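agent> Task received from the user: take the single chain below, predict its 3D structure, and emit structure tokens. No templates, no multimer pairing.
agent> Plan: (1) validate residues, (2) run structure prediction, (3) serialize to tokens, (4) report one or two observations.
agent> Step 1 OK, no nonstandard residues flagged.
tool_call: predict_structure(input=
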Amino acid sequence: MKNSARHAAYKALIDIEKDNAYSNMALNHYLRDLEPREQALAREICYEVLKRKYLLDYYLRGFITKGFNKLETGLLTILRMGACEILFMDGVPDYASINEAVDLAKRYAKGRAPFVNGVLRNLSRNRDSLKEPDDFSVRYSVNKWIADLLINALGPEGAEEYLRYSLKTPELCIRVNILKNTREELRDSLEKDGFRVSLSKLSPRCLKVSGTGILETEAFRMGRFSVQDEASLYAADMAGAKEGMKVLDLCAAPGGKSCAIGEAMGNKGLIISQDIYEHKLRVIDSYAERIGIDIIETRQRDGSVPVPEYEGQFDLVICDVPCTGLGVLRRKPEIKYKESPDLKGLNELQLKILMNGASYVREGGTLMYSTCTVTREENEELVSRFLGEMPGFVLDKDIRLGPETGTDGFYAARFRRI
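)
tool_result: status=success, residues=418
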């Protein structure tokens, strides 16, 4: 199919817009039959549009004199894709990007191809005179509640720096499966396959990789590595899992920390990985099978509901709790447009899960708390509340990661039961 990368990006964006699909899952569904180079282009277009949706709409409004709010989703998506290529992607000349958008309109917005052509050509001619919007949330394409939350957490300058960072394309980080190869062995293997590889400074199990098609490699199929950001992997390393431990992962899906801990344990011991949704447990089972871990037992349970038979039974309990997710905006830009959650209710849920997890830790055992967000209410302040309400635990270490470390925004705290 001609322009298959753009067709895939268009269909993924429609699923995200209409059905609130996750960007990675929507893309993966449409990329299966594409060549690696086409996959890379589709991902770039999709993510760049998602990162800048409000800003693209702001600029497009200047060239659509009336009826912008009534534009059909498919037509608006095509306009956003074309505008994004013209304004923020340097790989394709403007005339080519416009032609591609017109071709999409001929297929998905019947009768509107001349309109698309006219709007985008006008945008291209006037691109140098465009002015950045004053509105902070429009400039960085986030819902106002997110902008306000980040300003409160990081200050105006810190929030702007963080949102500017969130527009960058993240490096691909992979976790070496130490059951099957060393970091150096995997690095050499991937370099022979044509990938550019560097070592992470945060985790001895992490590599940073540049290139396309890494999930199509034999190394991935054989379970020699998994995709995991180094901030998340650092938290798993920080837990200090050892062979023979009995571990509970309270909110385990999609399984990255459970599997990372299973590898660190040498596949010896027991890990109970639970989640509230059964279909997510099947993802964990498949993940564990690919990498050769058989000590993971999945269970469908709600981490906020106490389980009396768990009390005092585990050497290590992991509480990677539901959160606002503001630390992963660069990987999951659809988060930028979600409606504001009940933040107070979310805090209470986080504390409830952590309190439950604490009761399951044996004397001398370890409790881990982590989020992929940057607000103090969900991180340091919640940890202080926990320590005030749960005697018998001491904070061994906590860490906040983010732009300064070149990673996702992440927080992790390690407690010891005394």
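agent> Step 4: summary for the user.
The CA atoms of residues 55 and 305 lie 42 Å apart.
agent> Done.
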